[in-house]
Write the structure tokens for this entry.
Amino acid sequence: MNRVTSPSAHERPDRRQIGLWSALTLGWLIAATASAYGLGETARREASAELARQSESAAALHAAVLRSELEKYRALAPAMATDADVARLLTTPRSDPRPLNERLEALSDQIRASAIYVIGADGVTRAASNWNHPVSFVGADYSFRPYFIKAMRDGSAEFFALGTVSGKPGLFLARRVVNAGRPIGVVVVKVEFDALEAEWRASGEPAYVVDPGGVVLITSIPSWRFRTLRPMDAESRRLTLADQTLADGALTPLPFSTPQDGATRLVEAPLDGAERQWMHARIDTMTPGWTLHLLTPDRGVIETNVANARTLAALIATLLFGVAAVLLRRRQQAAARQRAAEAARLELERRIEERTHDLRHANIALNRQIEERMRAEASREA
């Protein structure tokens, strides 16, 4: 007698295997996505932190170079303010300025100052290092200049502005000259930063120095000079334009937002006509109120690190999935072999049972035949 196997008995393992594979695939997708995102964001934070450290170090180096540049000029104005030749020229109107002019010219060439000049108490220049240049300061009236007014009043002044004669931007370091207890004039050293700005420009990291009012003074990007970190009110803008002798088009905001909280962070800034990502860092300088800002190019380092981290995470997840798939496959094969062995055992038992059943029926039939023959022989003998 043959037994009919239920179709669901064969289909149940197949459905279970499909479910396992579906669950494993879904788990792989979730794990790969989650790990790629998590590891990518970790790589982003680490790469950003490293770029921030580099930017802060570079900003500190830029500030140190600026400080070194200024220190050598700051010591000159006080020294010249006590010079006997300067005092003699200012107290003796008819004295010949030529020897002092030549001395100032040699000194300016030696320390690479833009100009060194001596102004009388009336604001008119008596001697200058550029005395024999086409654009000479000798005879120019600077009585209206803020650095002259402040130096005569307070003893010293530092002021960044465009030169009224040269038209070039620079820092004016002024020191009052005193004779017999009364002010007789001012010594001025003008410092231009062309060489320093060119050095910054060559580094590929845009840098700019901002005064307390948020005006860009020194910068490796010429178009940023005399622009502002934020919009200025009309009155402040009018006064600054007058003090620094700037054109009406100056003092407009920079074409990007500078972080106001001083934190080192990524910013978007246009350069060469293209919007790019930079790490912005700022540091105070030795000049009161001046801050140096530096933009370190990202150069795609952060996104590259993120992409590499995500790829690595996906590869690890895939490798783990592959190991799990192999283990699952081996388990399924072992289960299949076990099911096949069980099915073969059951089939053998079924065949044995069928054979035993057939033999039993044959034996019963044979016994019947023997009994019938015995009865027939007994009838004949009777």
Observations:
- The first strand starts at residue 115 and ends at 120.
